[in-house]
Specification:
36% of the residues lie in helices and 14% in strands. The protein is an alpha/beta fold and 345 residues long. The protein binds magnesium ion. Residues 181, 183, 207-208, 233 line the site of magnesium ion.
């Protein structure tokens, strides 16, 4: 089997937010082959990511055997090294990598979960992310909830945050998980102070309190935070996760498979984290791209709800009574009607 074309487009779903998540957001990568199979993956980077695919990655891939995924990944990483390593270039590689995996599953007539030694059909619990604690009352079937505090994260808003977390715990009761997400807007001192205030509310983790580059800050939090720290949503490649894991800077690692380099890198991160006895909980794990890895590799599976505006992905399993499960369809099990997709230009 040989690759005959690599295409990338940016479909826009209803209610896609008017910020970088749309302008530099999800791209669909399609890889065509001479076997008549097309593999699909979702990466990131918007039109900039598409430019990386079309000007660098496409030429590298045409005529190649798509089943040589580790070799192709290394060549794509090398070809983008001068301007890549993190961010948009790796987001683009992620979409290509996932499309290669999709092709691999389709050519073997197996779901991706089976390629990793797992089985479809397992029911996986989910947690739901909300931006306002008042939204919690309508989603009571989930195993847990994450309160996103990115809008009220200033130092003088600590009281508002702590009060919101307390009200969230009282709304969902004691039987469900509760997490909080600071979206890189706190600092070491405020994280320690807030953690001491909220530890009494039985918080599963504080997510991304600091910049991903502030490793020394995370080193301090490892010792002094009263609540476990999660992170990695905005980190790229398994190589960059290695120090996070070796130094145990995060208790919970949250790679985003559509950004971090694709499934090839997510598998490496799972292996490193498992060996270090750390938990992996992929960002947006209920989206199909990470769900296969969760089902196959995760001893403590928990899937975060996905982007509601990704409505153009047909075949994404829905959440029923707080649980989600994979079908036995080959590849990632998705279909795309490319003619129907609304594109950004
Ligand atoms: Mg987050």
């Amino acid at each position: 089997m040989k690759i005959t074309d690599v295409r990338a487009i940016q479909p826009i779903g209803k209610d896609s937010p008017s910020d970088w998540r749309t302008t530099l957001g999800q791209i669909l990568v399609a890889i065509d082959t001479d076997a008549g199979l097309t593999g699909y993956g979702v990466g990131g980077g918007g039109l900039s990511g598409i430019h990386v695919v079309k000007t660098v990655l496409r030429d590298l891939l045409i005529g190649r055997n798509p089943e040589k995924i580790p070799q192709l990944w290394n060549e794509m990483y090398q070809a983008t090294l001068a301007f890549g390593r993190k961010g948009i270039a790796v987001m683009a590689i992620s979409g290509v990598d996932l499309a290669l995996w999709d092709l691999s599953g389709k050519s073997q007539k197996l779901p991706i979960v089976s390629l990793m030694g797992g089985n479809p059909g397992e029911k996986i619990p989910t947690y739901h992310t909300v931006w306002d604690f008042q939204d919690l009352s309508s989603v009571a079937e989930h195993a847990g909830f994450k309160l996103h505090l990115g809008k009220v994260a200033a130092p003088d808003q600590q009281e508002i945050m702590i009060s919101a977390i307390e009200q969230a715990r009282s709304l969902i009761g004691t039987g469900r998980l509760l997490m909080v997400d600071a979206w890189m807007k706190w600092n070491v001192d405020s994280t320690i102070a807030i953690s001491k205030e909220i530890a009494t509310f039985n918080i599963e983790w504080i997510e991304e309190p600091l910049s991903p580059d502030d490793l020394s800050g995370y080193e301090t939090l490892k010792e002094e935070s009263a609540v476990p720290i999660a992170g990695g949503e905005h980190e790229f490649t398994a190589a960059a996760f290695r120090p996070l894991i070796q130094q145990k800077l995060h208790s919970v690692l949250q790679p985003d498979v559509c950004w971090c380099g694709g499934l090839t890198e997510l598998i490496k991160i799972y292996k490193m984290a498992t060996a270090a006895e750390l938990r992996v909980c992929p960002h947006r794990g209920a989206e199909i791209w990470a769900l296969h890895a969760i089902a196959a590799l995760d001893p403590n599976p928990l899937a975060e709800t996905g982007r509601p505006w990704m409505t153009w992905v047909e075949g994404q399993p829905s959440i029923e009574n707080g649980m989600i499960e994979l079908s036995d369809q080959p590849g990632f099990g998705l279909t795309f009607d490319e003619h129907k997709l609304k594109l950004i230009h």
